[in-house]
Amino acid sequence: MTVFKQRVFSGVQPSGNLTLGNYLGAIKNWVGLQDTYETIFCVVDLHAITTWQDPDILRNATREVAAGMIASGVDPKKSIIFNQSQVSAHAELAWIFNCVARMGWLNRMTQFKEKAGKNRERASVGLYVYPDLMAADILAYQATHVPVGADQKQHLELTRDIAQKFNSDYKVDFFPEVEPLIFGEATRVMSLRDGNAKMSKSDPSENSRINLTDDRDLIAKKIRKARTDSEPLPATMDDLDGRAEAKNLINIFAALSDRKAGEVCAEYEGKGFADFKRDLADLSVEVLGPITEEMSRLMSEKTYLDDILRDGVHKADELSQPILRQIHDIVGFLRP
Ligand code: AQP
Fold first, then answer.
1. pTM over 0.90
2. What average pLDDT does the segment 297-302 reach?
3. Within 13 Å, how many C-alpha atoms sit on residue 231's CB side?
């Protein structure tokens, strides 16, 4: 059996402002992995264009996501940080995986159904094969671990299916079995306006999310305006069933303070939301304020950000090209 190097890959789309969901569900968790694994973090601009992106805004958002990662503690000296479109292995391997994945598998992907909505016939083909590109992102590095939010679980299962089918079709032990790393107290941060909808960059309501570009006042204001109910907080998380907005705010509090949700709930037992939201606003400003400020400082240093991305592209190419060449040999592509 092949022993694979313990390697982490993850990414974020530059499809809008980074949200508290991206931070708590993904980026915050990446920071602690840098000392244990070889870590590769990608601004997935090829994924972003599966829905329309204005070119100038996309360029800016690409730097902004890189700045957000670095401001959150991803260290360019420890991790490879780069943008996906500049490393050709991603798109090339995605094509091979388009030929490995089955239509039936992709038809079951709930993210496509949610994002395409009623307008399925008008959705881009790229949006449909998005999970194949995600599998390529990971497997172009033979990555073994992928830290993501809970919404990406199904896509990672598909990555495992693709890897297994490739190995079995070509009778090789080439791709590892990828392990999802879904951890923290906020694996699925919900909208501040609707506790049953995921907090998302592309939600038309600005008040539904906290952006990592919001200043301290705006962060506090959005928390104060977050939708809640009129009941006091109960003693345990189980007693919050059916109160999605309340549950979401407790989970956010717990994740921001590195505590357990149950512990936070018990601390506020019997209190109303006025007290809780005041404390949550203070905590959010304390934790996110320095990140948003550092991010905005980094955005004024475009050359520095571009140098980091260029260096990352070079390193990512060096890792992925030999793997891609082996894949070509396995598939039977002649290299004259
Ligand atoms: N609300 C969330 N809670 C927890 N984790 C989340 N992630 C995203 N939203 C939440 C995690 O962030 C990482 C990067 O996500 P992405 O940008 O690649 O795509 P997404 O999941 O489609 O994020 P958005 O914000 O909803 O983007 P749009 O609106 O453009 O589709 C992933 O690890 C994801 O799990």
1. yes
2. 97
3. 13
